[in-house]
Write a structure and sequence with these properties.
Helix content: 10-25%
Radius of gyration: 14 Å
Strand content: 25-35%
Strand order of the largest sheet: 1-7-6-2-5-4-3
CATH class: Alpha Beta
Number of helices: 4
Shape: globular
CATH architecture: 3-Layer(aba) Sandwich
Order of helices and strands: EHEHEEHEEEH
């Protein structure tokens, strides 16, 4: 695991832009962090950086899943497992080659964690201050790729 510091929302936008190469069809990216840590904001910036329409990007907490079509033809499935304790059947199936799945709260259904190509966690340094720094933790099979994409963009805490 490697950590980086996100000090401003502009850092979130830069991280998202740097991680666009992770949007390979068939991959699954996990996003963890407390409520309000910036998971959906990150997804919004990622969709924007990939050329998608961000007007529809919102937390899928109550609908479970949203889809965002990118100009490349790839579809981002944005899942939120916050209210679940068992993995939805759709996520047990192999991710189609034209789809990237971004899974918020993967720790709620731990069976999915080994399937993630990358697992990003956003942790607020000060729980009382919503605008304070966040620590971005990176782990998973693509950890080295993510670290190489982020080196020089963010600093270590």
């Amino acid at each position: 695991m490697r950590t980086f510091t996100i000090t401003h929302e502009q850092d979130t936008a830069r991280v998202a832009a740097a991680l666009v190469p992770l949007l390979r069809g068939g991959s699954m990216i996990g996003m963890s962090g407390d409520l309000g840590a910036g998971k959906t904001t990150f997804v919004r910036y990622l969709v924007a950086a990939a050329g998608g329409d961000t007007r529809a990007v919102s937390s899928p907490t109550y609908t479970l899943q949203h889809e965002y079509r990118l100009p490349s033809g790839v579809v981002i499935e944005h899942w939120d497992l916050y209210r679940l304790t068992t993995l939805p059947m759709e996520l047990e199936e192999r991710t189609p080659s034209s789809v990237v799945r971004i899974i918020e709260w993967p720790e709620r259904c731990p069976d999915i964690i080994p399937l993630l190509s990358c697992h990003l966690s956003l942790v607020r340094r000060d729980e009382e201050q919503a605008d304070e720094d966040r620590v971005l933790e990176v782990r998973g099979r693509d950890e080295e790729l993510v670290i190489s994409l982020l080196d020089g963009i963010l600093r270590n805490p």
